[in-house]
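Q: Sequence in, structure out?
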Amino acid sequence: MKKFLFAVLLTAATFFAQAQTKGTNAIGLGLNTKSTTDDSQTTTKETKDNTYNIGYGYFIRDNVKIGVDVNYETTKNTTLTKNTNTLAESNTKSYGGGIYGQKYYGLFKTIYAFGGVKAAYTNSKEETVNSVETITSNDYSLSAYGGFAWFISKHIALETDLLNVSATYSKAENTTSANPSTSSSTKFNLSSSGTLTGLGFRVFLLF
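A: Exactly. Output:
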């Protein structure tokens, strides 16, 4: 009986270990949705954000993956000014993609921590409803990030990013149709963030 149980455990361990071995392909699907409300005596601000992600990765070595992904994001911001009962609204649509490298570190059975680097590009367009204003921007970023992965089975894994440090170069153009004019600006930003309050995840199909 003991030999049988040992054989079962050994087979299960092999079944899971194959998930992140050299030569494995990974198709990733991601979703991150977040809604926040900030209510004060004078205004009520609401933000709704949805991010969708699809990507492909390949394990070039055991526990080392490289890949590409594309993203699409929609953001809606509304501000209600209470004393005048006026509502301002803006909608932003963004798309982009990037290339990345990622390394996994075993923690417990099928639970892994990972760290990675990523170079990405994003184009976004924000339209302000009331003032008929459009802001178009192009962002180029380089980031280092970390998180956790759960290899549920040989063919399915879940990942979530928890920490991110990034450097971003952005060029924006502002256009107002009510009083036709265009202005542009560039900026460089270095930031760090965590996503524990807006936890997103990616599902990977492995084969």
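Confidence is low (pLDDT under 50) at residues 1-17, 194-198.
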